[in-house]
């Protein structure tokens, strides 16, 4: 999986696809900036991602990775520019409208697992069901089974290893069969064996058709993606195709 074909074009528009024009775009970020006072956290970012693609976002600390993920993940809005998700213009929606879209279309995986500490693994998954539609214990157990944790369903987060907690998060993210999976440093707190297990799960989801966007500091994690987008100072510095197509 050698990195080749460094696309450093000057048009500042980055089309992330495998030249299959029949595929629809799940994400279109156009001229997006996020400005805090005089600080440009993002500056004229353009990205087009076709459905089913696996993308990684890399860049030094402070380069705007989380800001971009928050905007794509319907947790924040840009100062200017536009964002289309699954054909819908989400640029100027209210927070409650964004929340609904997030629940329907997006599965979020974080570095800090964000599990509710006093709920069991099973209950943590069921909370996600509650917010999405209806609580269904059997389905929640199936989701835990998918990530190899059926036997840990009744454990509290503190009784689980870091890798197991991250797998609960993935089970929770899968509950609504999300079209788009966003993971911000999903293996940042994990050892190598657990990282491998999480990457295997992401590969499974990708094979099932999910679009995946992973923010990572790790070149190894980034290599799993078809395309790597490098952010620097809030701009897309380059796009690298990893030639896994
Ligand atoms: P990364 O995830 O790549 O480390 P971030 O997206 O978190 O970077 O941040 C990009 C820049 O925007 C940083 O300089 C950060 O300090 C700034 N920033 C992020 N969120 C805010 C905020 N709510 N208010 C002010 N500045 C912010
Ligand atoms: Mg960050």
How do the strands and helices of this protein lay out in sequence?
Layout: E1 4-7, E2 15-16, E3 25-36, E4 39-50, E5 54-58, H1 65-72, E6 80-85, E7 88-89, H2 95-105, E8 106-109, H3 121-132, H4 137-146, H5 162-173, E9 180-184, H6 192-207, E10 211-215, H7 219-222, E11 227-232, E12 235-241
Parallel strand pairs: 2-4, 5-10, 5-11, 8-9, 9-10
Antiparallel strand pairs: 1-12, 3-4, 3-6, 6-7, 11-12
Helix pairs in contact: 3-4, 3-5, 4-5, 5-6
Describe the structure.
By secondary structure, the chain is an alpha/beta fold. It is built from seven helices and twelve strands. The strands form two sheets. It has a seven-stranded mixed beta sheet with strand order 1-12-11-5-10-9-8, sandwiched between helices. Strands 2-4-3-6-7 form a five-stranded mixed beta sheet, covered by helices on one side. The chain is globular, with a radius of gyration of 18 Å. The N and C termini lie close together (10 Å). The site of magnesium ion has 2 residues, from helix 1.
Any key phrases for this structure?
7 helices, binds adenosine-5'-diphosphate, Rossmann fold, 7-stranded mixed sheet, disordered N terminus, binds magnesium ion
């Amino acid at each position: 999986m050698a990195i080749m074909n460094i696309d450093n074009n000057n048009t500042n528009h980055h089309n992330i696809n495998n030249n299959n024009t029949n595929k629809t775009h799940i994400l279109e970020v156009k001229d997006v900036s996020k400005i805090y006072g005089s600080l440009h956290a993002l500056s004229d970012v353009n990205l087009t991602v076709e459905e089913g693609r696996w993308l990684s976002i890399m860049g030094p600390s402070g380069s705007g990775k989380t800001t971009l993920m928050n905007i794509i993940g319907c947790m924040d809005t840009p100062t200017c520019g536009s964002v289309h998700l699954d054909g819908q213009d989400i640029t100027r929606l209210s927070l409650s409208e964004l929340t609904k879209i997030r629940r329907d279309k997006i599965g979020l995986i974080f570095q800090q697992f964000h599990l509710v500490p006093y709920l069991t693994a099973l209950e943590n998954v069921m909370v996600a069901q509650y917010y999405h539609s209806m609580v269904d214990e059997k389905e929640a157990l199936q989701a835990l089974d998918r990530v190899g944790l059926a036997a840990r369903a009744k454990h509290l987060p503190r009784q689980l290893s870091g890798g197991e907690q991250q797998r609960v998060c993935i089970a929770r993210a899968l509950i609504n069969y999300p079209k788009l999976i966003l993971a911000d440093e999903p293996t940042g707190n994990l050892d190598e064996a657990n990282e491998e297990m999480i990457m295997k799960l992401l590969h499974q989801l990708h094979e099932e058709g999910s679009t995946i966007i992973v923010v990572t500091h790790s070149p190894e994690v980034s290599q799993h993606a078809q395309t790597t987008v490098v952010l620097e100072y809030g701009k897309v510095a380059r796009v690298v195709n990893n030639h896994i197509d």
